Amino acid sequence: MTTSRCAATVIVMAIFASTAMAQTAAPATAPSTTPTPPAAAKPSIAPTTPAAPQAPAAADVKPNVDGWSGEVAPSKSTKGIALDDNQTKLVETVSGYFAELQNLKGAFVQIGADNKRMRGKFFVKRPGRFRFDYSLPSRQVIVSDGKSLAIQDLDLNNEDRVSLDDTPFRLLLRQDVNLLRDAQINEVQQSADVIVLGLQDKSPDTPGKIRLYMVTKPALELKEWVTTDAQGLETRVEVSNLVKTEELDLKLFQIQQLGAHRNSPN
């Protein structure tokens, strides 16, 4: 029920309640021998028509940021797990993969907690730059220029912007990637051809945790990652068709202003 409808209902109920109370409280009187003229008819009260609820202004509507901002569930642990020698080597291997990464592009599929799938293409350029362009019908762009991360919805013409340092991605895209030094390791697993690494930033000012899935055959490669929000809901991003040999234009990673004159850098 809208606020205006509630207000109208309360007013009408109050009128009926006061009328009933007045009738109950009126003292009984002896019948008069003088005929009483008929009472004037009471004006009818037309029901109040509630005003239609106003849609929120575009500036108040935030784009979908599932899995991208730092607003994800903190780890229950404050120190991470104790690593044995093999786990330490696995962390160093994954750390070395991201430290050597300069350019990366490919396709992605994002799977939300509601099992909704969104597809698109992505570009990464270290340090700190990445871009995700969602395919139609979505018109969403997520771009980091190395300092800020912007989640832009081109249909709603608005954006949500956070500092890259407030997201778990800064660990993997900084100038000098060193996960043993900078990350709290919460999980390390290895199967025949997959490494699973769960981590979060050691800094208490950088919330958020992320779980990486790396395939090891035929070579070490990023396969997907999962982030978990404060309600425990997971967002999974799977990547494919990876290319690391192409130099990417810095214009891809400029955060453009929203508006009619926005240009595509692709």
Describe this structure in words.
The protein is 18% helix and 31% strand. It has 266 residues and is an alpha+beta fold. An eleven-stranded antiparallel beta sheet has the order 6-5-4-3-2-1-11-10-9-8-7.
Keywords:
single chain, 266 residues, disordered N terminus
Reconstruct the topology from this structure.
Layout: H1 3-25, H2 85-100, E1 103-111, E2 117-125, E3 129-134, E4 140-145, E5 148-153, E6 158-163, H3 170-173, H4 179-182, E7 183-190, E8 194-201, E9 209-215, E10 221-228, E11 234-243
Antiparallel strand pairs: 1-2, 1-11, 2-3, 3-4, 4-5, 5-6, 7-8, 8-9, 9-10, 10-11
In short:
This protein is globular. Helices cover 18% and strands 31% of the residues. With 266 residues, the protein is an alpha+beta fold.
Rg for CA atoms: 30 Å
Give helix and strand order, one letter per element, not per position: HHEEEEEEHHEEEEE
Q: How much of the sequence is in beta strands?
A: 25-35%
Number of helical segments? 4
- Averaging pLDDT over every residue, what do you get? 77
The main sheet orders its strands as 6-5-4-3-2-1-11-10-9-8-7
- The N- to C-terminal Cα distance equals 46 Å
Shape descriptor reads globular
